Predict the structure.
Amino acid sequence: MAATNYNVGYDFDAFEEHALSHANTAPKKEPAPAVRPLKKVKPKTRRQQQQESRVSFRRGVKIFVIAAVLLSVLCMQIGVGARKYEINRRITEVENEINIAKSENVRLNSVLSNYVSISEVDEYATKILGMRKLENYQIEYIDLSEEEGVIYSEEENSFWNIFG
């Protein structure tokens, strides 16, 4: 960036005249505050003093009552807030217990369904109890359409003869 010189000058003599004119003038004095005449205060009568003391006492009682009411309202709000917090905390605990019980229910239902499934029952009967599946020649069908009842005969293969 190139510096330019515009050959500008200042006439400092104009400033000197202004400065000299201010130096010759004396500072202005501020006017003294006006003296106000003092008021004469009449002494209050005993009745006026009693009335003022009653008014100030009533004002003090009003302030005290308002402060007591506000303090009691504040205490009640704190108590209600504490109860509300405790109830909400208990609700949260019960909801957590419910969720735990629901998940335990799901787990137990799945275990139960595993125990009662056909494949589990079949496996238990064959391996532990030693049972076998029936063959077709072992299956007998009973027709009860003619008579509804059981007839015992006195044959040698009858039920009573086996144990008798």
Notes: The longest helix spans residues 46-115. Helices lie at 13-24, 46-115, 118-127, 159-163. The radius of gyration is 58 Å. The CA atoms of residues 22 and 29 lie 15 Å apart.
